[in-house]
Amino acid sequence: MCNLYNITTNHEAMRRLFPKFGDVTNRVDPQLDVYPDYPAPVLRNLADGEHELAHLRWGMPTPREFLKTEVDKGVTNVRNLKSSHWRHWQGVETRCVVPANSFSEYGQEPDPKTKRKPLHWFALNEEKPLFAFAGIWTTWKGVRKKKEGPVEVDIFAFLTTEPNAVVKPVHPKAMPVILRTTEEIDTWLRAPWDEAKEMQKPLPDPDLIDLTPSNDNEEQRSLF
Questions:
Q1: What CATH number corresponds to the domain at position 76?
Q2: Residue 17 sits in which domain range?
Q3: Could you give the angle at the alpha carbon of 160 between the alpha carbons of 158 and 162, nearest 5°?
Q4: How many domains are there within the chain?
Q5: What Å distances lie between residue 180 and 76, 130, 220, CA to CA?
Q6: Which residues lie across from 150 on neighbouring strands?
Q7: 43-61 burial string, b = 16+ CB within 10 Å, else e?
Q8: pLDDT, tens digit, 9 for 90 and up, residues 145-194
Q9: Using one digit for the tens of pLDDT, what is the confidence trace for 74-96?
Q10: Is-above-0.85 flag for pTM?
């Protein structure tokens, strides 16, 4: 489950990847360490056919059967949009894209030295170019934090799919759905569901790298 990502982009990269959003992309500034329930920039469709950039809190409503109290911490990653809970947000008016430059997953085995699971960062290449997660959004009323009390806020989550060969050794269950081109983004935001759902697939193996140094590389560096 991806619960941490980075936005380290610039305005020119935003304009190139999201040309149909015009000058609103100038309002996206670098944002390191986006965690669940943090506000983050999202490019979304609206019911009237327009689109906008907004800062939404990360975490869609939890299915009721999994809630034990009134506090709903939210669901950050969505896999099965066919389920009765998630299919409400299949429509164009509740789709969005989430700008990002890298995302992270914890490794499976603790580091022998630190006894902690290592955090792996993934990107399209070492330069960490901009991409987008395929997401959904909604307006929600409820309690996210007990101290905060009831709120009405716009929230989002992004889709996941089966992992490719780069992510699978680190996180064997899933990886985020990544959109890399204006055409893929336009399909997700505007196409009928039967076409848009085809975007929910893993990124080809050669198109993603693990930025985390391997243990072998770490050991070699320690010799010098």
A1: 3.90.1680.20
A2: 5-222
A3: 170
A4: 1
A5: 20, 8, 34
A6: 143
A7: bbbeeeeebebbebbbbbb
A8: 999 999 999 999 999 999 999 999 999 999 999 999 999 999 999 999 99
A9: 999 999 988 999 999 999 999 99
A10: yes
